[in-house]
Design brief:
The structure holds two protein chains of two kinds. Chain A has ten helices and two strands; from the N terminus they run H-H-H-E-E-H-H-H-H-H-H-H. By secondary structure, chain A is mainly alpha-helical. Chain A has a two-stranded antiparallel ribbon with strand order 1-2. In chain A, strand 1 and strand 2 form a beta hairpin. In chain A, helix 2 runs parallel beside helix 4, helix 5 runs antiparallel to helix 6 and helix 6 packs antiparallel against helix 8. The longest helix of chain A is centred in the middle third of the chain and has 29 residues. Chain A is flat and about 65 Å long. The model of chain A has no long low-confidence stretch (mean pLDDT 86). Chain B is built from 23 helices and 22 strands. In chain B, a hairpin with a 2-residue loop joins strand 15 and strand 16. Chain B has a six-stranded mixed sheet with strand order 6-7-8-3-9-10, with helices on both faces. Classes of the chains: A mainly alpha, B alpha/beta. Chains A and B meet through helix 6 and helix 8 of A and helix 3, helix 4, helix 5, helix 14 and helix 15 of B.
Chain lengths: 268, 560
């Protein structure tokens, strides 16, 4: 049972240097900002989706698919309500739904999912240890980068402890699904308290365990795994720069942008 | 002048906020090539001693500290714990806290990377140590996906890769099956032969008869120290101080012999020399309950996999009768815990059915099954969350919306049944592990379940607490309760369980009376288990004994 996101495949992305991947992750967040309408983000979203499916992220996408869907739907609903527009589609009492509002919601929904997709691709192809290495190669002290990566390492452990605790309390007759909202919240106390207690104990132990393995030792740190920089790093950066250039061109070219904005411009 | 590797001089320590001295004037020296075992009851200061030896106390655990710890004659006071890595290695009781990587190979490398070992040396050491400890096939796995025993081995491998001159192990075998324990001590034996020192904190002294020195700690003081055959000679003395004497020592003591044989072969030779012969002793076991009666729990061709294609249970069939006392035995990863989690619908089978009194447990549901099949988890802290003992035990009953008067009665009954004599308003989190374990049993008992399932009920308990827990289960069983335990403590299973179910590779390979199963060495070997020494010696002598007491009762000295 793999509790984290990383899936070793030995593929193209896995062999890119982690520092390059971190830079590319930041670059991957840029193109969605060059958009005024959903159709302007859609090609980039599809590009990322294809990349995710062809680089072994399919399993992780299935795991978080529902979250992505909720993110998209919430974005469409909320922005449709709150974003005013000139082209009224229909009204629900004081709420007027406009074409621009729906379009903006769709665009933001796709944009957010682009960020999620990029992060999933990164985490699927990068072990947490490589993330720490990449961060330190980008200039962060190793202690800081390791601590950041610890958050990723510990999340699955807390989830696992949480699962066991839920099981333990269910056998004691705890039903998390009955009662009103306040009652339901109250019913989570038998889960939350042991999770926090075990988390605190773990945190205490962790600091000791880390030092006992020489963490924070003043000597120069070595690495078991090698992360060579090569042509793959260059290709990945070029692909992302091309994506940024393409989306920027569309964004700054009023003619093309107008054609793509078939749902109407949402903002200038 | 050569110094001992490690010296603890006049150590006094009390944890902040508690004036009671956990260590009170402890003096100890560990020489190169020495294998030292430390035993003692819960709270005697064993773990604190290990922490002091590496400077973790007083660096991480604050409190008044007096005395000095020296490594190779040099005081470690003022040194960071990280600076000692590579010189002193420690395997903690909570070994899971020592695993923080997403890959077992990287886990082994982590410590070496921190102290600047070059890549080639790392690769070489990992290959050697992983093979030695038996994790060489697991190096590409995610540590958190391993079983408890595999994790414990990996944690040890990661410490050994640092090549420490002194290795401190705080209860290193809690999650290992008997064969795993044996293998681990073989590894530790090889280490101390290589001029390194090994210090092991352990409750079970069976594997430590070959130690150079045994130290018994009680109330923060050394109460006995010396050769195992001297220190562990008196089983009552051992028990009083939290340790179980090796079974062959206990047998010799019961037979009134002066010598203390370390192995079964030594014991056999000693008995022959002293003229002991088997008598016509025959056990008077009551038949197993339920023959012909209606079954209480039925498991019917159950298959289960946590991840597709990797079945943990492969067509398990099992019938539990009312009044059974079953020990579910098998090596790490054989599917024992997964199987018992099906009995109260905690896990739904992929295929097959589980019935309770002819009703499908899936239809009854987890919440209601809790009142019929009570489940005590291995770690009591996964269950406890209330701020008082009373509220903790009352929790399930309140979930069942029982009247407060009945709740009070049931709480008292449950606490009395487990023999927990503590104030009802006491906070469970300041109780000892043994007390918390008993409280967890009381929490489940309060619902008056017909079946009580306990996952490793004796792990982490000292000898007296282990016996107390097993006696409690026997008492509950005699009062009509059906008991199922999942355990690696084969001596406890042999002494207390009436029926044994053997599992291997997700299948049940044997099921029957404890005496029959324990005396079929080939069956146990198939499950990668080894019977307790008294059973094996009994088999050599033709005595079907399950305990040292039975074996001693079946031996008589030939008239001179």
């Amino acid at each position: 049972m793999n509790l984290g996101f990383y899936r070793p495949t030995g593929g193209f992305l896995e062999r890119v240097h982690p520092a390059t991947k971190l830079i590319c992750l930041l670059l991957a967040f840029v193109p969605p900002f060059f958009s005024r309408a959903p159709l302007q983000v859609l090609p980039y979203f599809l590009l990322l989706l294809t990349a995710a499916l062809t680089t072994g992220s399919g399993h992780n996408l299935r795991r978080i698919g529902s979250i992505m869907l909720i993110l998209f739907c919430m974005s469409v609903v909320l922005w449709s309500i709150f974003q005013r527009g000139e082209t009224r589609l229909f009204g629900l009492g004081p709420i007027a739904i406009s074409r621009e509002g729906v379009s903006y919601g769709l665009m933001i929904g796709l944009r957010l999912n682009c960020f999620v997709l990029a992060a999933v691709i990164f985490l699927t192809s990068t072990p947490i240890e490589a993330v720490a290495h990449g961060l330190s190669r980008l200039g962060l002290p190793f202690v800081v980068s390791f601590t950041i990566s610890l958050a990723f390492r510990l999340t699955p452990l807390f989830l696992e402890a949480g699962r066991t605790i839920v099981m333990a309390q269910k056998t004691r007759g705890l039903d998390l699904d009955c009662g009103g909202p306040i009652e339901r919240l109250r019913r989570y106390i038998p889960i939350i308290v042991p999770v926090i207690v075990s988390g605190l104990r773990r945190a205490d132990q962790l600091a000791i365990a880390l030092e006992s393995k020489g963490f924070g030792n003043k000597c120069k740190r070595t690495m078991l795994l090698e992360y060579p920089v090569g042509w793959r790093d260059l290709i990945l950066i070029l692909v992302l720069l091309a994506a940024i250039a393409a989306t920027a061109m569309i964004y700054f070219n009023p003619g093309v942008a107008r054609v793509l904005a078939i749902f109407g411009r949402t903002h200038s | 002048m050569t110094h001992p590797l490690l010296q603890l001089q006049n150590i006094h320590f009390a944890y902040r906020g508690n004036p009671k001295l956990v260590l009170n004037n402890v003096d100890m020296e560990i020489a190169a090539g020495e294998f030292v075992a430390i035993a003692g009851p819960t709270g005697s200061g064993k773990s604190t001693l290990v922490r002091c030896a590496m400077g973790i106390v007083p660096k991480f655990f604050k409190g008044p500290f007096k005395g000095d710890v020296k490594f190779c004659g040099e005081s470690i006071a003022g040194k960071r714990v990280a600076e000692l890595a590579g010189k002193i290695g420690v395997l903690f009781q909570d070994f899971e806290s020592q695993l923080f990587s997403t890959n077992a190979r990287i886990e082994c490398a982590f410590g070496m990377e921190n102290i600047g070992v070059d890549r080639d040396t790392m690769t070489r050491r990992i290959a050697t140590i992983a093979k030695l400890v038996g994790v060489d096939k697991l190096l590409e796995r995610e540590p958190q996906s391993l079983s408890g025993g595999q994790k414990q081995r990996l944690a040890l491998a990661s410490v050994l890769c640092l090549e420490p001159q002194v290795l401190l192990c705080d209860e290193p075998t809690t999650d290992l099956d008997p064969v795993g324990r044996h293998e681990l001590f073989v590894v530790l034996g090889q280490l101390f032969q290589s001029q390194r020192a090994v210090v092991v904190v352990e409750h079970e002294m069976e594997r430590l008869v070959h130690a150079d020195r045994v130290v018994i700690l009680d109330q923060g003081q050394i109460v006995a120290e010396g050769n195992p055959s001297q220190v562990l000679a008196d089983p009552d003395f051992c028990l009083r101080h939290g340790a179980l004497a090796p079974q062959m020592f206990e047998l010799a003591a019961r037979l009134g012999l002066e010598e203390r044989p370390a192995t079964i072969e030594d014991a056999q030779a000693l008995l022959q020399r002293k003229g002991f012969l088997p008598t016509a002793w025959a056990p008077a076991d009551a038949p197993l309950p339920g023959a012909g009666g209606p079954a209480l729990v039925e498991v019917e061709d159950v298959h289960f996999a946590y991840t597709a294609g990797d079945e943990v249970l492969q067509g398990v069939n099992l019938t539990i009768n009312r009044g059974d006392f079953v020990a579910l035995l098998g090596q790490n990863g054989s599917g024992k815990t997964t199987l018992v989690k099906h009995l109260n619908a905690l896990l739904p089978p992929d295929r097959g059915r589980v019935w309770f009194e002819r009703r499908a447990v899936a239809e009854i549901g987890v919440a209601k099954m809790g009142a019929k099949v009570g489940f005590v988890f291995q770690n009591p802290d996964h269950m406890l969350f209330n701020s008082s003992v009373f509220d903790e035990v009352a929790f399930s009953l309140r979930n069942m919306r029982q009247p407060e008067k009945l709740i009070e009665e049931r709480v008292e009954e449950a606490l009395n049944a487990v023999g927990l004599c503590v104030p009802r308003q006491l906070d469970p989190f300041i109780m000892t592990k043994g007390e918390r374990q008993k409280l967890a049993v009381a929490c489940v008992l309060a619902c008056d379940p017909e079946v009580l399932v306990l996952d490793e009920p004796t792990t982490g308990l000292d000898a007296a607490e282990q016996i107390s827990m097993m006696q409690l289960l026997t008492k509950l069983n005699l009062a009509g309760r059906t008991i199922i335990i999942v355990t690696h403590a084969l001596d406890m299973a042999a002494a207390y369980a009436r029926r044994v179910v053997l599992m291997s590779g997700g299948r049940i390979i044997a099921d029957g009376p404890a005496r029959r199963i324990f005396h079929q060495a080939d069956l146990l070997a198939r499950a990668n288990l080894l019977a307790p020494p008294c059973v094996r010696l009994g088999a050599l002598l033709g005595i079907p004994a399950l305990t040292v007491a039975e074996l001693a009762a079946a031996l008589r000295r030939r008239a001179p």
